[in-house]
Amino acid sequence: MLLNVVxxxxxxxxLWYPRPYMLVISxxxxxxxxALALLxxxxxxxxxxNDQEETRAGLEILLSIPGFALAFRAxxxxxxxxxxPALKMGLLGGVLLTCCAAILEPAIxxxxxxxxxxxxxxxxxxxxxxxxxxxxxxSAPRVYRTAVLEKQASSGKVVxxxxxxxxxxxxxxxxxxxxxxxxxxxxxxxxxxCVDLYRGLLAIPWFQVRSCD
Length: 213
Description:
The protein is α+β, with helices and mostly antiparallel strands. The protein has helices spanning 2-16, 21-41, 60-77, 84-104, 112-131, 181-186; strands at residues 46-47, 57-58, 142-153, 161-165, 175-178, 192-198, 206-211. The protein folds into 2 domains: 2-131, no CATH class; 142-211, CATH 2.40.50. The chain starts with a helix and ends with a strand. The model has no long low-confidence stretch (mean pLDDT 94).
């Protein structure tokens, strides 16, 4: 199935070279819903998980691969104040997605597949909702000024730029924070930067580092 190839390519890009970032993330976010749409449209042709006795085409790749890739990117990229709200939203979203799957494929309610789908769905919801934390967030940020202790940049095709910041707001100890190339190149250890803390979509607080005006 061509969509399986799309899933593997998008997941591979997400893990090793997430460019163009929004396109890769968007494709991964939509694929599980494409799987459910295919199942809803043609239950005689598709199943959520294939086994030796199943003659229908399995949709397990579309359902599982994107979730783990999104969760990886969320853990690596998202600058959230605390992980607990994101995990709670992931659990809730995973339950809702699993309920949708169970409605379309009632057989999974009586097998171990239902628990497996719940596990996969929770990872998917956690990753997707965490990465979407800033979408539609029009809350006024709380601004914290703090100092840069050191800079760190990784090598490779994708360069991760991080700044070690002094404690600020809810951060009681120095911690690294991602920075854009513009901000990273414009500051040196000892300089002060501003941290904008937002309420976030679905109450998942997130922050970003910028140069102070």
